[in-house]
Design a protein that fits this description.
The complex is a heterodimer. Helix content of chain A is 41%, strand content 20%. In chain A, the strands form three sheets. Chain A has a seven-stranded mixed beta sheet, with helices on both faces. Chain A has a five-stranded mixed beta sheet with strand order 9-11-10-13-14, with helices on both faces. Chain A has twelve helices and 14 strands. Chain B has a single domain, classed as Pyruvate-ferredoxin Oxidoreductase, domain 3. In chain B, strand 4, helix 2 and strand 5 form a beta-alpha-beta unit. In chain B, helix 5 packs antiparallel against helix 6. The chains are: A alpha/beta, B alpha/beta. At the A-B interface, helix 7, strand 8 and helix 9 of A face helix 1 and strand 2 of B.
Amino acid sequence: MAKKLMKGCEAIGEAAVQAGCRLFFGYPITPQNEIPEYLSARLPQVGGTFVQAESEVAASNMLYGAAGAGCRCFTSSSGPGISLMQEGISYIAGAELPVVIVNIMRGGPGLGGILPSQSDYFQAVKGGGHGDYRCLVLAPSTVQEAADLVQDAFDLADKYRNPVMVLGDGIMGQMMEPVEFKRSVRPDDLPDKPWATTGAKGRKPNIINSLYLKAEELEAHNWKLAAKYDEMARTECRHELWHLDGDVDVLFVAYGTVARICKTAIDALRGQGVRAGLFRPITLFPYPGNALIQAAEKAKHVLVSEMSCGQMVEDVRYHVAGRRPVGFYGRVGGMIMTPEELVSEARKLVGTRG
Amino acid sequence: MHTEIILAGFGGQGVLLIGKLLAYAGMKAGREVTWMPAYGPEMRGGTCNCTVVLSDRPIGSPISKSPHALLALNLPSLDKFEEAVRPEGIVVVNTSLINRLPNRTDVTVVAVPANEVAIECGSPKAANMVALGAYLGASGVVQLDHVKAIVTESFSAKPKLVEVNHAALARGFALGQAAATAAVH
């Protein structure tokens, strides 16, 4: 398929279709409305169904039902809507159902604003809903990567029978870039899901449930889930290294669109003789901690930048564990850091003048 | 080659559209491209802008604080972005709606009465195309023919619009070329 110029939101919608997803349940919210807009027209063309639910709570429970029936399905929203979905997401995690959730982040808390932000990192990677569960979280940095990761998200959700969240921001959702859909899967091509509730003809009924009233049984279930998250940590960590062939004066750590802004800053710093590089986590849960440690050991200073008051920086400090000083530069509320600001912050750390 | 362009005007003037045409033409020419709209809450008749980046290497920030070019289709856009343009950059000014020229003396000013030219080409709605044509004429950043081909493709259901938009692009292009040549001499 030839490259097309698409908005991040549209590319996410098309990627879901190309992954064999035929069901979308959601409720409008800026800055991700182009996802449901696109799918409301696109899904009927491929025999799929688009449902504008009465609320985000309803949408997340529709996902529970559709995923339980063995169908690839997904939803998208932004912070306030993702908060409303947390009940359903927790039940989906508890019932071990494969579901893809896209969060195009905007500023919070509360209704906050509609401009880009990364303020839902804690919510995405540390649980969000109640109970002892994890979502696998993927953070694209370009529209092409958003399309690729949405397709991967469906495979990972099926592989682990677990909710997978794709975490973008308003820039990612609204920006247009060239994109190419490299794989095309039809629902008929997908492997069977023998656990799904598809009608119990000729077999014992399958039961999909998250209720375990006996403590022994729930404990066993919790440890089974924990083992699944450990397996993700062993096999699914992804990251990108940039300008890290040798030692660096400053190592930027950033994810999503902020990582792109860091790259522009790194180019400028290198032009000024400051050795700078980037560590970009692509999976936020599981966090690529071992790779981060190796990258940090090549650096004199680590500088984390996020569109938040400091969320991922806690994970960076946890992994770097005092091996290197870890600085932080954040912009919030819909404000976006400029490459110039990042250059200035890096120069403060390395103690050089421009 | 790395060029950052801000295109700005009133909502409805079509600045997002000409931004997309520019990005699309860049993509067809094998460049890396990004198109990023300002999507804050806006009211009808409010201002509207987008940023296009065209580059030979992967694009970092899709947002620009210091663009190489500004296409200002109304006065608030010129007021807001004029100072941000890099020295030796290009400022396209729609003199049909803007009653002053840029204060900057270190940029190439391309003053075009885009609305009047568009009316002469057959539709006042094509003022955005005149401005885009003028920028292409002054900068050469992508080929006029590439943009024309994309217009043909995008408006294939409405051949009359293709004709008007092609004429508007060509008239703007000639004005842009003339302004750039005059600036050099």
